[in-house]
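Bit of a strange request maybe. I'm writing a small parser for structure token strings and I need a real example to test against, not something I typed by hand. Could someone generate the tokens for this chain?
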Amino acid sequence: MTTETIQAPVTAEPRIVDGIVVTGEAMPVVEITSPMPEGREAREALYYQRGWWREETFLDDLRRQARLRPHKLAVAARRVKEARTDTLDYIELRQLTDRFAGGLVELGVQPGDFVAVQLPNRWEMVPLLYACLRVGAVICPIDPTTPEEPLRHRLGLTGARVIVTMSDWEGNPVGETANRLRQELPGLEHVVIVDGTPPEGCLDFRDHFIDPVWEDVHTDLSARERGPDEPFVVLFTSGTTGESKGVLHSQNTVHSAIRGYVDTFLLDDHLVAAVTTPLVHYSGFGQGILSSVMLGGTIAFQDRRKNDILLDLVQKYGATLLYGPPPTLHDIARSQRAEPRDVHTLRHVVTGSAQVLQPLVDDLREMLGARTYSLWGMSENGPVTITKLDYNQDWAAHSNGRPIDAMEIRIDKCINPTERGPVGRLRVRGASQALGYYKRDAEYDALLLDDGWFDTGDVARDDGRGGIRILCRASDAIKRDGMVVPLAEIESMVNRHPKVAETTLVGPTGRVEDPILAVVVPSGDERPTLEELRSHLLETDLDERFLPDRLEVIEALPKTLTGKVRKKVLRELYGEA
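Reply from user aminoacidic:
Good idea to test on real output. This should exercise your parser:
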């Protein structure tokens, strides 16, 4: 581990150009206005009127597709290690949904019960999602890499009656962990193992869910199905600032988000979506599974992170849309350069979770022949802003886009939330907003301001087109001469240095006047120096005052289960340095 320190220079009054704060004339205040009526009841009536909320459910979508296009491919699930792909058409997906629903009834699952599903990207996740809808259960998706303590918290908080998990995943005995928790948590009655030998007291997934013809036993479950405004999924936050919270959504709050997503890109039943993100996260089950079935399209995914072979799925199934975070897309573009595949069917490459830079947009256009779109969202509301079709092809490198029709955004001055500004705290409101945090009402209510505006905890700037560019988390903000340092963008720039595999910027003590500390994971044996990083950033025309003041080189960044950097841990490590 190495440490370097340097004093930051002081320069003239800054402005913002293409997402970068530079010196010069001040940027005028631009207010992002609200097109929706005031008052919750009036807004909810509008949500139904405009079709963002509906009386139908996601089960109705599945039934419609099974009727209209029964033998169309719905799911292509590649198992990388086994070198095979499992497929389901719509009639098979409908049948397995009914069968799995009967299996849940046999386990004693009642409407309102929680069912935890801790799986990688496997085909079983898809009918299990719809089976929970069929019996009125609330599904609790959990990453298979979740350690024991956060798993205990999630299962205990929800009182999950059933968990469907693996015997082993990437060397972790997840089945044994779940079984140990079953003996500890009074609400957890059943552990079902998808692959491998179940531990004593656990059920085998095939024996219980696949082989019995439960749909002939439980023929009418319609009375169990919950309405579109009732809770149906709980998603746990990353827990970067403390214990993770369970975000509760109804079918309508999710429908409005994915409706805005598919409408933005004018998607229809020709959609073939190649999804790289976990199906247990919002982007995987929302923009992936639910969007595809709603339209009658196809979703393709693989169970392991092998980005170098993901384009094989694109070629085989003629994917029209590719979704993934920027690091994954960098790998995919590099793979295409090394081993070209036929990807002429691709129309859209959609990315989120990190800032997009121009070199990535250029690489994806050159290598995949597709246009790149950037979006921003969170578990509490799904995709909120997207760079739209009427933006130019490079705008994803300068903006996170405008809000979908069902959502409103505004930027409040950090020091005075009653005033608007070009840079400040991002707040959102609309049809996609979550119902709340499960058993954490006070924490959720504390984030709601006047008439339903939700504090996202992010600092953003106006992009000049009614959209936003995310700068950083408010809790991580560092200022220079009163201006917020665009940490997210600078991190993305540092990541382009050839000696850098990954980086994050942090204030060592969490104060806005902190020096800018760059914590870097090297890409090889040769470690970058602070001066090399500063010179690299100056080539991007970054204002000198926003250059890193210190450098720490470490082997790996501490992260949450969803891949977010735990900056709190880094402050504890380097706050006294």
